[in-house]
């Protein structure tokens, strides 16, 4: 009887050890499950449906990220830029921010439900998008948190760099059975040939102005600044377009408004951008 109990205990321990394996940290793929589970996830950009190439984007250009799983799963999307800055893209607090994905369905970010675009803003270099799929919801509180005073729909990420993200995620997924999680990585390049427009200050400065040269179109430049304001919590209102100029009105909480004016000088790639903020008395 004692021999049976000892044998059963050893067998159970071996089963747990086989079910849980140490994640592999990879310079190419960030974090990898060393066991190939039945669960699969694929991530790709709109410019490369295979997810195997490195398409090029320029500042102000729209990007759409897509993810698909072969089983029902919770999907977490991270973006690591060329300087090691980490953003948690999914889940988020926007209309399509729920990260539970049904089997064999494609989830896009932004989706058609979202009233905004996801615009490239630099820095130049290769970006990696990591998709982590899990059969159970994960606790990422040590990696990213939605704060009570969060002014954007994205969580605040507390880790930095690809290695830092990989190490933090390793701790999260290590207790899981190996068959219950998997990752995939897509890459895209932000071109250094196109100057990234200057980013406006996030303060309530009455007026912010900038003059610069860029090969972006008038609409791409306008969208770049419109999305900067939306990221600060402003809601877009009426916009107007005339030859060489676009303007738009934005509203914020407690009566704060902003007016965005983007003007391209005639027969030139020089832009004049003005953001005027005003608080109603």
UniProtKB/TrEMBL annotation:
Superkingdom: Bacteria
Q: Which Pfam families match?
A: DUF4384
Q: Does the keyword Cell inner membrane apply?
A: no
Provide this UniProt record's keywords sorted from A to Z: Signal
Location of the DUF4384 domain: 56-136
The secretion signal range is 1-19
What is the protein named?
A: Putative S-layer-like protein array-related protein
Q: What organism is recorded for this protein?
A: Deinococcus maricopensis (strain DSM 21211 / LMG 22137 / NRRL B-23946 / LB-34)
């Amino acid at each position: 009887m004692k021999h049976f109990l000892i044998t059963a205990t050893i067998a159970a321990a071996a089963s747990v050890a086989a079910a849980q394996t140490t994640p592999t940290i990879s310079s190419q793929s960030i974090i990898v499950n060393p066991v190939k589970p039945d669960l699969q996830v694929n991530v790709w950009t709109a410019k490369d449906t295979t997810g195997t190439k490195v398409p090029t984007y320029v500042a102000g250009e729209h990007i759409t990220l897509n993810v698909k799983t072969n089983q029902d799963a919770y999907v977490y999307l991270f973006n690591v830029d060329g300087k090691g800055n980490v953003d948690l893209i999914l889940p988020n607090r926007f209309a399509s921010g729920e990260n539970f994905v049904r089997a064999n369905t494609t989830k896009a970010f932004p989706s058609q439900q979202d009233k905004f675009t996801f615009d490239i803003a630099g820095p130049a270099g290769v970006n990696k998008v990591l998709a982590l799929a899990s059969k159970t919801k994960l606790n990422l509180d040590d990696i990213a948190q939605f704060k009570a005073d969060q002014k954007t729909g994205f969580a605040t990420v507390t880790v930095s760099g690809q290695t830092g993200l990989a190490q933090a995620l390793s701790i999260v997924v290590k207790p899981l059975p190996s068959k219950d999680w998997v990752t995939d990585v897509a890459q895209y390049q932000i071109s250094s040939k196109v100057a990234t427009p200057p980013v406006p200050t996030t303060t309530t400065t009455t007026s912010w102005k900038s003059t610069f040269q860029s090969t972006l179109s008038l609409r791409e430049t306008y969208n770049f600044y419109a999305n900067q304001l939306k990221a600060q919590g402003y809601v877009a209102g009426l916009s107007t377009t005339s030859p060489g100029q676009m303007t738009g009105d934005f509203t914020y909480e407690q009566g704060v408004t902003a007016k965005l004016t983007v003007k391209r000088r005639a027969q030139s790639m020089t832009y004049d951008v003005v953001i005027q903020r005003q608080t109603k008395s």
